[in-house]
Write a structure and sequence with these properties.
2 domains, 7 helices, Homing Intron 3 (I-Ppo) Encoded Endonuclease, Chain A, two-stranded antiparallel sheet, single chain, alpha+beta
Length: about 180
């Protein structure tokens, strides 16, 4: 996607506000609706200031015919309005890792596997003690791995099954620690 023609040398909203290569009709009105609901932060993120869903992502209502429309993720709507259609089965991911960002320069397409890999690479996956229902802390796992004490000792000490302790010792659980 070409850079802004306003002289800033970057992808900024001026490019779209001033109408450089702007789509007309539905795409243009969606663009203007998106641009009305953002503020730009110091990282260049276009922070969504409209409705936010329970998942933390911005939402915007897209009109379709006579009905009131449907709610879609604001970053997906921004991708479609400023870049183009999203092929079936692909997700819109953020280079900035900011759920509120709708800057098309910070968005890219990826498969569900790419999305999961991106989440793990950026440390956003719920694993270890961040996982709901975790019974052990990282410090306890380190203690189990470094000790030569019997498995039963740690199972009783930490209130977990002996199989859990065994899997930690053999690297099948908590392998990253």
């Amino acid at each position: 996607m070409p850079l802004c023609e306003c002289g800033c040398g970057e992808m900024c909203r001026n490019r779209f506000v001033q109408g450089h290569n702007a789509k007309r009709g539905v795409g243009g009105s969606l663009r203007s609706r998106i641009l009305q609901k953002i503020t730009i932060n110091s990282n260049g993120c276009w922070e969504w200031e409209g409705a936010v869903g329970s998942n933390g992502y911005g939402e915007i209502r897209i009109k379709n015919g006579r009905s009131g429309g449907k709610r879609v993720s604001a970053h997906r709507a921004a991708y479609e309005a400023f870049i183009g259609a999203i092929p079936d089965g692909l997700s819109v991911l953020h280079t900035c890792d900011n759920r509120a960002c709708v800057n098309p320069a910070h968005l890219f397409l990826g498969s569900p596997a790419d999305n999961s890999r991106d989440m793990v690479d950026k440390g956003r996956s719920a694993r270890g003690e961040r996982q709901a229902g975790a019974r052990l802390s990282k410090a306890q796992v380190v203690e189990i791995k470094q000790s030569k004490a019997p498995l039963k000792h740690f199972a009783e000490k930490f209130g977990v099954h002996i199989g859990t302790v065994s899997k930690i010792r053999t690297g099948r659980n908590w392998a990253w620690v």
